[in-house]
Amino acid sequence: MQPRVRPQAVLFACGLNAVRSPMAAALCKHLFGADTYVASAGVRRGELDPFAVAVMDELGHDISKHKPMTFEELEDWEGLNFDLIITLSPEAHHKAIELTRTVAAAVEYWPTTDPTDAEGSREQRLDAYRAVRDQLMARIKARFDGLPRGNE
Fold this sequence. Notes:
Blueprint: E1 9-14, H1 20-32, E2 37-42, H2 50-57, H3 71-78, E3 84-87, H4 90-99, E4 106-109, H5 122-144
Parallel strand pairs: 1-2, 1-3, 3-4
């Protein structure tokens, strides 16, 4: 059995590449950016969510310039040369599994709540986004921290 290593290229994927996947990509880039190429995509292209921008800014991560893109746009732009695709929604997971017929990448499903469904005051809604951000940070650290980089 081969020892586990950190993938060299990770794609975070969601339904709309507007909230969860750009947040996850920014967190992963912050933690492992020097060692791991990180990108995000969606099944469909959404509009970047201002609440996602706000809660990431609280940690000093600026995602305001993120341009949501689909799997197909990402493939056209840079190819789908990823060792690992982490899907955050059922729709993205099905799309990633479909892609692995032609792309040699492992796929992991991390079910992640969609904070856009939150209701209430602005602060209550922001709390839902913070909870998702913090869950993603914990999951990324648990999955990759302490692993040697691939090809080392």
